[in-house]
Amino acid sequence: MANRKKKKIGKASNRKTDPLAWWREARFGMFIHWGIYAVAAGYWKGQPIPRLGEWIMHHAKIPLAEYARLARQFNPVRFDADAWASLAKQAGMKYLVITAKHHDGFAMYDSPCSTYDVMDATPFGRDPMQELARACRKAGLKLGFYYSQYQDWADPDGGSYAPDYDPTKRNFDRYFRHKCIPQVRELLTQYGPIGLIWFDTPGQMTPAQSLELKQLVHSLQPRCLVSGRVGNDVGDYGSLGDNQIPRGPVEGDWETPATINDTWGFKRQDHHWKSAGTLLCLLADLASKGVNYLLNVGPTAQGVIPAPSVTRLREVGRWMKVNGQAIHGTAASPFPYTHDWGRITQKGRTLYLMFFRWPGGQFVLHGLRNKVHRAYLLAGRRKKIAITQTHDRKLDRHVLRLALPSRPPDRKISVVVLELAGKADADPAPLQQGDGAIRLQTHLAQVHCPDSAAPITISRGGVADYWVSTKNSLSWSFKVFEPGLFRVEVVVARAKDKNFPSGYAVKVTLGGATVEGILADEKTVQNAATRYHPEAATTLGKLRIDQPGTHKLALGLLKVPQGDSTGLRVTCVNLLPTR
Ligand code: FHN
Known about the structure:
Layout: H1 21-26, E1 28-32, H2 37-40, E2 43-44, E3 47-48, H3 56-59, H4 64-68, H5 81-90, E4 95-101, H6 118-121, H7 128-139, E5 142-147, H8 172-189, E6 196-199, H9 207-220, E7 225-226, E8 238-239, E9 254-258, H10 276-288, E10 291-297, H11 307-323, E11 342-347, E12 350-355, E13 361-366, E14 372-377, E15 386-392, E16 397-404, E17 414-420, E18 438-441, E19 446-448, E20 457-458, E21 464-465, E22 473-480, E23 484-493, E24 505-510, E25 513-518, E26 523-524, E27 535-545, E28 549-559, E29 570-578
Parallel strand pairs: 1-4, 1-10, 4-5, 5-6, 6-7, 8-9, 9-10
Antiparallel strand pairs: 2-3, 11-12, 12-17, 13-16, 14-17, 15-16, 18-29, 19-22, 20-21, 22-28, 23-27, 23-29, 24-25, 24-28, 26-27
Helix pairs in contact: 5-7, 5-11, 8-9, 10-11
The structure holds ligand FHN.
């Protein structure tokens, strides 16, 4: 994940002067991973090769000369640039980013500085990037090129993530000057205006090299954006991790690249397609946090986007046709936390409530301080919804009640539009929600680190990272409206390629009472966001809150299992009403 400087969220973009304006408005784009790896399609010498399709050369340890022979079989006669652009458009996507060169080093366009490209090495004889550039212009989509600037497995000096890669035996700068820079120049001079260059995996590039690339792009096309993965914090916008869903709003301009099944490049054996409903939840979730969704398809070696991707994108498009205004041009939710029933975006004086689960009947939203002039459903006949608003001064409790129809107007995500008297103003404190639950997310916690040698850091994704000291703790202040007995649940995230942390003992203190216990993966959290970043919840016990008002909860660490260096990765503490 690339870091970058923080910028203000929800900033007004001036379309003419701000090169990021179109990108912020877009919110949704199509990623395309297409290369000669699609010929192998996840198999090598008859054997299925695990993990990502576009990494087959690396994972199956294929010698370059053998891998290069795939090019001779690459003849995508069914490739139709207009059909791809029109599918992206139908899905409600506003930009398209395609792999011009991935880590395998093979250029999917006519590259004058290399013969390892689609024109010289394949029987195809057409430049797909030229055709896509034309198709995107016609369809009104921005076109971006993915370019692997560091990894190049075909160049003797290119970078690699292979365990035996020895930078002292290679001259990366020679590759950088003889291949990378000339190819980036080609991409920006051969295809007309380019929306962005999507660099990836900067590896061991120096700040000077990253900056040189960025300046090259801007010198050739001043309005072309440079993705954060150019490295060393110099990109025009940031890229979160692959398939990463942050827990709360992310400050600045960010995008999540994501897969529609599990691979990026086509794999015959990957049938793990996300449903259109899941894709829409992810789109709404990211938009509610101010993050763009760059959703990938992996076309076959014949040039066809797999049918399951097409079906799903068309379904997404049907929803976007009716509800797209809740996504395009929106900013993150005014609430700093997520709601259990769905997600919120805002635009001007309008709020969009996107319901993943339709509550039907009376729906209660806490903490909206504005007067709501009008509420209506986006789907169907934009039916008006009756509103009641109250404010309890003593508790500073703002309640909005909506009288919703019993049946959801949309089978996937139903959207309720709220027209407000002014710009949305939400109580920033964590609040007890309409369903009685209190969800205390880590990104809203106060961090206490008396042991400054091992501080807890909260990641941009909203996870407590490297929490290994029993002297340190987290706490939250929150408002309770309906006191009672609550079940205390602690949710933790699993670190990449690791098991759930086991053996961590924690303590929750609320008022004078405490509950403690050892965290286990007793209940995995199932939602659209946890597929690649699993979470598990442990119930520690029950605690009573007697009075309405502001309360404070502290989470302490009692014991760290021996030999664990990952630390406790807490994402949330839930107080769930119980008897
Ligand atoms: O290694 C690549 C991977 O193949 C794919 O291109 C993704 C897309 O974001 N980026 C890299 C890993 O983060």
